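Section 3.1 - Work completed
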Amino acid sequence: MVLMTTDTAGAYLAVSVRTIRDMIRRGDLPAIRIGNEYRIDENDIEKYIARNKTG
């Protein structure tokens, strides 16, 4: 398991940190809360990408 910060996940998906946090709050992207920060499993990001592919 590789955990990414919201900054790293945002850079990976080419979106802002705010967008990542919104995705987590909506339940679109699972995350683990550690203190005041979220960590996102790299596998969950890959699953998110696969679910949202078009065509």
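Second construct:
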Amino acid sequence: MSNEKIGQFISELRKSKQMTQKDLADKLNITDKAVSKWERGLNCPDISLLSSISDILGVTTSELLNGKKSSDSFVRAEANIDDTEKNIDNKEESIDNIEKNIDNALQYAEKNTKRRLKSLQDIFAISFSVTLLLGIIVCAICDMAISGTFTWSLFPISSSVFAWIIFFPVIKFNKKGILCSMAALSVLIIPFLYVLNNLIKTNSMILPIGIRMAVIGIAFIWCIFVIFKIFKTRKLLAAAISILLVIPVQVLINFVLSKIIAEPIIDIWDTLNFSIIAIAVAALLVRDFYIRKK
């Protein structure tokens, strides 16, 4: 099953019925450009249109997916099965064809779903990029109009560029982009903090606190990534371990902050957070245990 074969078959059937691409498109309530793309093998019909296309062109959905008309049918084989051994063989062959057609239909549905998902990802990626770009342009124009130069706008502009670099791979490539986004975050977070420190010169705590928190945060994110890789078949267990890891990370963050701003390492709110985390971890472990037991 291929786009080219299906498209050529649609073209042959359409021409045999003396229909133009526009005629077929009008019957399906779509554009003739869509039909043209099908027939050139550039795209495949939406799964919701298969039944209508088959009816209009006078073939079955299975024949449409196979890109050719069937030479024998299950109905004919069933009608003659008691007469001759040949018909029994035809029936078995037809059953094999039906199974093959079902597989083709499932493959087509999966391919169609992936195509739709990719299209949505492309739309979301473009929308995300355009939104950030418009934000940058608006900030730059307003800053130039008020100050005559770039002052405060450098902060949202740099933040927007940083956000685009980090999130675009995930939006565009879904799971395949996670590793790329994490690598970009690991490499760029400290340079980004230096940029912020230079833009906000009145706050001298950005680098002392920001760099330490960035290192701890990046290490935590990579730990979670590795945990889910190791326990990829037991996501509940991975989630439980990851949530439990929050406790030592929070203690480490509090310890680092206590050295800089004289905050207590553990307070009442930390104790409450740890209790909630312990309950959540216990619930996930119990759920994982029952799932494994079944």
